[in-house]
Amino acid sequence: MGSIDWGYPNDEAIQAMHAYSTHDSDKGYPDGTTQAAYDSWMAYYNKHSSNNPNHSGVDFDNWKDEVRAEHPEWVEARDWYSTNIVGDGWKNLVKEYKENITDPSNVKPPGFNDQSDWIDENATPTGSGFKPPTVGTFTGDAASTNGVAVNTAALEWFAKEVLQKLTGNGNILLSTMEQLKTIDPKPGAFARAEVLRQAIVGATGQDGGVRGDMADMLYNMNNALIAVADALLKMAGEYKNLEELNSMTTEKLTEIMGDSFKGLDGLSTYGQKTVKTDGN
User: Percent helix, strand and coil across the chain, each rounded to 5?
Assistant: First the structure.
């Protein structure tokens, strides 16, 4: 759903909003009527324009006359298509769909299929596979105090042994972000379940759902912690001992840590989305 382009009429968008079946239901037509009308028109169009490189001169009224006797509903369905799919009605159709997409009474889940919903443990292991990074024990001059101490050696150890083992390619933050891309739950073929699925994976190209929100958060957390590590190493390099570190002014601390602090503060914007499945 997240990759659908809603800016113009295309098969993915039409199918996602169940536009044809909704029109069939609204008009009391058998399911598939609008699709059949479209298919009939396209077959007629292709037949009569195959020898015309400009694809012009196909008489729409002649097609209507051919199908009207046996399928009068096709004429109306094709006229609806002209107005609502290829015409100005497309924007309104999309707007209405997006406004109602989280209301279970307006959500139409995918049709049933007989494919098994069991998970192949070999292909898609259910275990997270999480392995915490190996972090050594700090053995600097503050280790023997058994208390809390801050010095330049401790800053350098924390930056290298903790932060740099969490961040960057191949480490836990970005690896988890990549794993999130494979999440595609199928909770069930009923409206509230479809709303729940869309809340997780996103309902539109502008809404990545919980999955997209979490992936963005991990990416930005990775960048923020890289900035923190770089700042700590810079601080450890400029201040060689505890006395020098204690002499640092607030302005200098802000100068060194400013960008990394901003990155950490920005993480507070994630996890704010609320989704209801009762339509209220």
Answer: 60, 0, 40
